[in-house]
Structures are given as structure tokens and as C-alpha cells.
Amino acid sequence: MKYRIKEPFCDAVELRIMQQLLQIAESEFHIIPKLDLSIIVEPDINQWERNSGWQGGVDKLHQKRLDFVMFDKQWTLFCVIGLVNYDKGLLLDVETKSILESVSIPLLVLERNKQYTIEQLVEKITNLCS
């Protein structure tokens, strides 16, 4: 099987939001785009126990993509940012939202077709944590 690089890595909307988030983050936060949920969450069961369902849980997490993940400067998880387009019916996966809630990870939902100012993003991020 042959492979090729997927281009572009970020579409125009993702790139615009990423650049804004980087301006906000400066040296206080790290912003990582397009992570599998399995990078930040794992099943809370013994993976070595026979028939525990651990591998199935991990496989499910691998299928879930996060638009952006924000960490503080010590790489402690701060929040997840998800992009939606209500006009096209592109919503956040219900199961992903449920998993994030179950482990108390804050979720900030942004609309893809809305132009946010830096100030609006700062306010949304600040409100998410208060």
C-alpha cells in the first residue's frame, strides 16, 4: 500500500482559529490541533483483565477527533475546543461530549462560520473556567 501526506493539515477556518488561539496563548498555553481523544483519555478499567473491554474502549477513543486541545504551560489539560457548523448540521459527537463531561474536561464550542475577535475568544475561554 502506498501512502501520501494529507494536505492541507488545517482548512482555512481551522488555521484562522489556530492563529487566534496562538495569539491568546502566548507563553501561557500550548494549543494542539486535531488530536485523537485517546491521547488525553483512556478507559478506566484494568487493561490486563481478560475480557475487560479495554481494547474496545481504546479503539472507540481513537475514532474520536478533537479540533483543538489547550494545555497550560506545564502541559496540564486546560480545555478542548470543538468547531461546529449548525447550518450544515455538523455538530459535536454526542459520545465525545459525554466522555469529556465524564472526566470533567471543559469543552468550548465555536461556530465554524462565525468570525471571532481575539477579545471574544478570550472572554469565552475565561467564562469556560469560571
TrEMBL record:
Residues 11-126 form the DUF2726 domain. InterPro entries: DUF2726. This is DUF2726 domain-containing protein. It comes from Thiomicrorhabdus marina.
